[in-house]
Amino acid sequence: MDQETGEIIQSFISEAYERLDDAEIQLEKASCADNAGCLNSVFRLFHSVKGSAAYLGFERIKALTHEAESLLDYFIKALSPVDPESMDDILKTIDCLRLSVGVVERDNSDEDASGLTKDRTIALARRIEGLKQGKAKAGESGPCNCITLSELITHDMVDRFLSECVDLMDEAEVKALSMSRGDPGGAESINDLFRAIHTIKGNSGFFGYARLEKLCMEMENQLAKARQGEIPVNDALANMVLEGIDGIRNAMKAVVLVGADKACPEEGSSAATQTESRYRPLGEILIDLGTVKEEEIKQALDIQERPLGEILVESGVAAAADVDKALEIQRATAGSAERIVDDIQRKEIRVDTAKLDKLFELVGELITAESMVLNSPDLSGLKLDNFQKSFSGLNKISREIQETAMMIRMIPLEGLFHKMTRLIRDLSRKFDKPVEFRSSGQETEMDKNVIEQVSDPLVHILRNAIDHGLESPAKRSAAGKPPTGTIYLDAKYEGSEIWISVRDDGAGLDRERILMKAVERGLVKGDPSAVTDDEAWKLIFEPGFSTADVVTEVSGRGVGMDVVKKNLERIRGRVDIKTEKGKGTDFILKIPLTMAIIDGITLRSGQNHYSIPLGDILEFFKATPAQITVTEHGEEAVNLRGAILPLIKLGEVFSIPGAALDPAQGIIIVVQSAGRKACLLIDEVVGNQQIVVKSLSEYLGKVEGVSGCSILGDGTVSFIIDTGRLMSLRLE
After folding, report:
1. Could you report the per-residue pLDDT of 650-689, keeping only the tens digit for each?
2. Could you say which of 209, 618, 624, 685 is the most buried, measured as most Cβ atoms within 10 Å of its Cβ?
3. What are phi and psi of 111, to 5 degrees?
4. Global pTM value
5. In 3D, which of 426, 436, 409, 439 has the Cα closest to residue 500?
6. What DSSP letter does each residue of 449-468 carry, written as one string?
7. Under DSSP, is residue 143 helix (H, G, I), strand (E, B) or coil?
8. Domain residues for 386?
9. Same-domain pairing of 418 and 403
10. Does the residue 264 lie in any domain?
11. What's phi and psi for 327, nearest 5 deg?
12. Model pLDDT for residues 18-76, shown as the tens digit of each residue
């Protein structure tokens, strides 16, 4: 396979995944099942995937998407809502198509996908046949409350479509102009042209721009003949392509002006009455000028077969001079269609995520190198005012670069939330527990790498919420609750963290049952009643811990919540639990905005250097002997303004030779995590700086209380303290 074909296939793969995600998002909308406009939108997404698959010869994907189209088409034409069984079939088809695209990604062919697609294609065909024969009662609810496709399409979507068309047309025009008789690059130019026109055709079909789609199809037919050698690649073909490009550009002008790809409105006409029109109607201008009345415009529009201006002048309603003035205003308001189209710029580009990761890595190295320059021993003791001024400017720029690079990797949680919507729908049906799912904060943005780590914890928490949290409809009714349970998924910014909350209105955590199981497994020794609620709730995160009596295919093995804990620790996150018996449980995932570069304080204990995230530090102070006290358990603590805080000696925790162990001799840092506070004894505060987080080498293994390391300006390695884990090690 040549490089060109490989690039086309890669483009198909990325677009297919994107369109399947979009289709699933549309289908998960509450009103989509009985909304013809929404179903039309999904239909066009399937149609686009089918068209691209057919072009590349992926017959199995083509056949499956064709059947999915046919099923949707049945409901669209029947003006009836999609029944739940058919909706299941459509969603299963999306899952199957994703797997099939994965096969293409692996093999550059869909031949091995036949085992996936064959049964699903047959199932869809049977479903359609059953509907046609009246076996499925799909049309009894009558016509739906439909909205038009134009109500689903926003100006932003159209702008993105037009910007891509401008790029593709520019590219096609260059290729067409380069074509000449005997041109050795003619075949390659034809392929490039075909791809560009095919892309516009597929997108035009999605938006419902029939004129554009027809123009592109006509050009495609001619280019296909040229690719197969049926017609020569010469000046005549180049002229045909250039004329077609002009036709496409004219159709694009109509989209800009009236929100559709019909012919551009003739000057003086009503300019259509499109709700999305950017072309100000002549009648509206004349009314504003006080030349004519609204009733007179309406009467003229009722009989309009010619330009509105001509009708108004002939009927004596308006003077020719007034119409000419209005036309000038209309042209000035609309602007030149050519200029509008030519000024459209691509607002976004596709970038390989590996390149973004590399960019972020280089930004981290830049910050480290910058620190090494500032702390170079060659500069020690020198008074360099100009250097310091220049370095401050460099530091400001590098910080802006770092913030911009981080913003590039930030993406909304919308995609993750929509996946959870599908999960809840499937689990609700599996457990026969009706669930109302509510979500908010989907627009909250998070580092894409962090999102990948959060996905699994969310899945396990939601599974537990439905399986263990929500009661059966009968039990809920007996408890005075509505039979349908409710699950809330919310995201919001809290300081330097993002909090993702999963809340249900179920039975709440059962403290007695949790402690009973913990005692059985030896996780709790001594009197269980002495265990605090927070300590009891944390037991569910222990490996293999489960309160389920029966192991199901979804839960009961005690694996899920352990995964939650491990994944969150990997990204320096944590989870808090709030629960009330009989009323429900709230799991709050607290996750740092990014895990690559953080602001922190570097400190020294003995000869070792450590760094603590700035958000974990409350204050520093020098303790006096009078502030040091001993608890009833014989442990040292610090009296800070009347609050008794436990004392953690860093040198003792990590067995550091020469580290300060006398609280009165060292420096105390008050740290916080998960609502708890503690005092950390160190030798010296080195300074405040940006910390580039790097993972520990594998040969060190897992170091409890340390989440990674960083390289300081002088080349020294500084270990990054996991404050929450350190406090757990010493205080529990």
Report:
1. 999 999 999 999 888 899 999 987 678 899 999 999 888 7
2. 209
3. -60, -45
4. 0.56
5. 439
6. HHHHHHHHHHHHHHHHIIII
7. coil
8. 353-409
9. no
10. no
11. -65, -40
12. 889 888 888 877 677 878 778 888 888 888 888 888 878 899 999 999 999 889 988 88
